[in-house]
Specification:
Length: about 375
């Protein structure tokens, strides 16, 4: 990677880090990235509102290959001292999306200067953390006849500057599920005159271990109770409203769907037994992220050709990633570059993206651009 381009990418990363914005609110971030590309490249820019992409039009134009980076931040306070630390209280780039976008922008500089036999698309995506971003941006795939798409994530606990690859499922599917129940209030001394949702919600919670039993599922299936909210602190009132909030997760989407149906079915059955109203809400929905072996093999080949250290992942991550929306529509692969075995975890106060990963990411992308 040209030193000038690397220096520009690192400077850009620090500017993005200082101005973090939460999912679906990345106004400054998006515009700053657009301005950077307009100032430093001749690429076509396509503004799609909350997200955008840039295009390198090849004179040869063999294939349409896309590369994606996310650019949202997290609601976490910046507590470490950095010369480019977050200017916004309670918001910071503690997942490294500033580094992902700086890498994609640095890659754009190199392709703009060096060219490619393929048409290269640089997709800058909002709202990865909530799962909204890729769901909205997925139209990009068919609209541009994308043949293949790649992305990477920095990963703590993994050998520094080493690329990690996996075929098939790379991230579990997940979603936030809320079961709302409503009965009838009464005086606490006359519970028989009301309808309290506590007992129905307790039955649902009690059934969860049976639904996630490894003996009846082919992959990981998890249901994590994150909040139970029933009634109010009023000792004279029999509770009449309750909410059960869970994160449901599975290695395979078909098993996530089955877990969701099981939870809905038992909730409806218990509601009917007690005479409760019941409704369901869903948010932070992530698909299963599955890699194509053909695409992962290209990552392996580039690492071999360029001498980039590479290792195989032996199992999928439980945490979710919205990149799966793209690989439902075209070939692609999502890989990882290690921060170091003892580096602070993602989403922790001590975390900060390592600038030296940018060049590794750019060189990997450059190799993939010519595959």
């Amino acid at each position: 990677m040209e030193k000038k381009n690397l220096d520009l990418a690192i400077q850009l990363r620090h500017e993005l880090h200082a101005h973090p914005e939460l999912s679906n609110h990345e106004v400054w971030t998006k515009q700053h990235l657009i301005d950077f590309l307009k100032e430093n490249t001749k690429l076509e820019i396509v503004d799609r509102g909350r997200w955008f992409y840039a295009i390198y039009h090849s004179n040869v134009g063999k294939r349409n290959v896309a590369f994606r980076a996310d650019f949202d931040a997290l609601p976490i306070e910046e507590t470490i001292e950095l010369p480019y630390g977050s200017k916004f209280p309670g918001v910071s780039h503690k997942c490294g999306h500033d580094g992902h976008s700086a890498t994609l922008a640095g890659f754009a500089l190199e392709i703009d200067q060096l060219g490619s036999d393929n048409n290269i698309f640089f997709l800058f995506q909002h709202a990865e953390e909530t799962g909204d971003g890729a769901a909205e941006c997925a139209v990009f795939i068919k609209e541009n006849n994308i043949d293949e798409i790649f992305a990477w994530h920095n990963m703590s606990g993994f050998k520094h500057n080493t690329v990690f690859v996996i075929d098939g499922t790379a991230h579990c599917a997940s979603k936030g599920m809320t079961i709302q129940m409503e009965g009838v209030p009464s005086h606490a001394s006359e519970p028989e005159k009301g309808i309290n949702p506590s007992f129905a919600i307790a039955k649902i919670i009690d059934a969860i271990p049976g639904f996630v039993d490894p003996e009846i599922n082919k992959g990981i299936v998890l249901c994590t109770v994150v909040q139970v909210d029933i009634g109010a602190k009023a000792f004279g009132v029999n509770a009449s409203k309750g909410s059960l909030r869970m994160t449901i997760r599975a290695l395979y989407e078909e098993e996530l769907d089955r877990l969701q149906k099981n939870l809905e079915d038992i909730a409806k059955a218990e509601a009917g037994k007690y005479g409760l109203k019941v409704r369901f809400e869903y948010q932070d929905e992530f698909p299963e992220t599955a890699n194509y072996k053909e695409s992962s093999d290209k990552i392996r080949q580039v690492c071999k050709e360029k001498g980039i250290p590479m290792k195989e992942l032996t199992e999928a991550f439980r945490g979710s990633e919205d990149f799966g929306h793209y690989t439902k529509l075209t070939k692609g692969s999502y890989c990882y570059i290690g921060n170091g075995e003892n580096y602070p975890n993602l989403h922790s106060y001590e975390y900060n993206f390592r600038d030296d990963l940018i060049e590794t990411g750019v060189e990997l992308f450059k190799g993939l651009a010519e595959q």
